[in-house]
Predict the structure.
Amino acid sequence: MSGPTQTTRVDAAGLLQSVFGYASFRPHQEAIVRHLIAGGDALVLMPTGGGKSLCYQLPALARPGTGIVVSPLIALMQDQVAALKQLGVKAEFLNSSLSLDAARRVENDLLAGRLDLLYVAPERLLTERFLEHLARIRPALFAIDEAHCVSQWGHDFRPEYVQLCILHERFPEVPRIALTATADEPTRKEIAQRLRLEDARHFVTGFDRPNIRYHVRVDEGGAREQLLRFIEERHAGQAGIVYCLSRKKVDEVAAWLNAKGLTALPYHAGMDAAARKQNQTRFLNEDGIVMVATIAFGMGIDKPDVRFVAHLSLPKSLEAYYQETGRAGRDGEPAEAWMRYSLADVILLRQMVDNSEADEAHKRLERRKLDAMLGYCELTTCRRQTLLGYFGDPLPEPCGNCDNCLEPQETWDATEAARKALSCVHRTGQRFGVNYLIDVLLGKDDERMRRFGHDRISTFGIGGELAEREWRAVFRQLVARGYLAVDAEGHGGLALSDTCRPLLKGEESLLLGRQHLETKRKTRKARAGTPAAQVAGDPLFEALRAKRRELAQAQGVPPYVVFADKTLAAMVAERPQSLAEFARLSGVGEAKLERYGEAFLAVIRAAA
Ligand code: ADP
Ligand code: ZN
């Protein structure tokens, strides 16, 4: 872009419209952008999809010189640079994926002042050679993306990040901005201290992802069919991720969904690297692909239009759940997080913790995290309030956009039932699993029962007032709340824990939700309300998508960097007839207007 690199005084709103094609800033963006343009340092905590990149991209264009962006993930850099080029911004990256020649060319561009933005891997930035380059040019700003990588306590720790404080020492006059989506208060302090950003202004927007709708149900059999129905009825033709615990299940579910007519691709560590890469590329570059994956998939995936994330088994912690579900709806449009879980998942995860090599303190922590996860699943109140509360960002009012807010669950007093269940565990010697315990409570008189003599104990047959699935819910809840412990040997045997005493003595009570059975009455026909979903299936929308695919393929970039679904949906709604009308659509800046305006107008006219 010829303008901004030379211009010193540019108005931020003007750039937002002319380069990015957006009419207004998202919350906090404007304050951050102005602060940086004026030369201030900033520490930004903003949830995924909040619009962090614009916070440094726009000031880099507004200030003279090249904006230097440190980013730990090669895939993300490539994506961002591809998107910026589409906007007509002169952006490049430097990382190990470039040939020596290509890297030299980028360095020459940098030294000649031809770049608006340069993305660099931290280890590259820290080389003496690169630091000398920086001394010869005039950096517009330094942006440190994924700044939590500096935290030694986090799981994304990158040793090179700690050395990034050198930027401040060598270039004290250049403004810096550190950004992250995942920092709690202690991590935020650590970032500020290690990156020498103590005096930076903090912009904290919280963790909430209001566009994601949470939905959680127990798997009482048929989870796969329910998933299929969920996709067909609410997300037909849209991209999504389905997480499973094991590789075997990934393969099975992907094959099954394919047999049902969806395009589902597997992704797990057991596949060879080339096949995995190919599936990931297809997920990014094609429309409407469902990725079935173990948790290994997702890191470094910045696809903005993932419309749903489904879990067919329980994640091991709320941290993992929030990160995985957070891959939905990065574009800020409505998206759904859907889960089916079972007590068997809990028992399996519990055993994995118990049998791991970790020390006892670590195991205790993992167990607590699993308990919190299960507690979340069994909630009868607003899920978002609990989630955000867990992450230290309380939400005062119920959210109105989770299953429990939208379809409140009835509760029932399960105190008496819980006592019967606990005493049944006690009377049978604290070594049997749920199925057997329920048989005892329901008075199932079989050979095994008689062999153990359990047909003669006081809890035999005292549970007739509840159906089997209700007893399951009681046991699940007792495990979820830690009243019952799962044996470490791996047989699923349940034992009383100390905390169950107040409940047994009647000093505590237990309220349970009557989870809705997955019946027809509950499935709403309407798709999730994205503008794109509302027009999905519209012949014009499909024609625009095909045009987008063609243009993207010709350039070897993902379709969403040409135009977001939302922009295509706006074309369907507005039916612009001229370039002037086309320019008013959200997501159409000057470069895209010039590059693609006529091509899409032709599709719109042909449909009229
Ligand atoms: P983050 O890095 O915080 O996850 P991104 O920077 O990728 O988020 O932005 C998420 C999405 O929001 C992108 O598709 C981006 O183009 C869009 N976006 C950002 N700012 C605005 C804005 N002011 N108006 C409309 N869309 C925006
Ligand atoms: Zn809610």
Notes: Residues 22, 25-26, 29, 46, 48-54, 304, 330-332, 564 surround adenosine-5'-diphosphate (ligand 1) (CB under 6 Å). The domain at 12-204 is CATH 3.40.50.300 (Rossmann fold). The longest strand covers residues 212-218. Residues 65 and 140 are 5 Å apart (CA to CA).
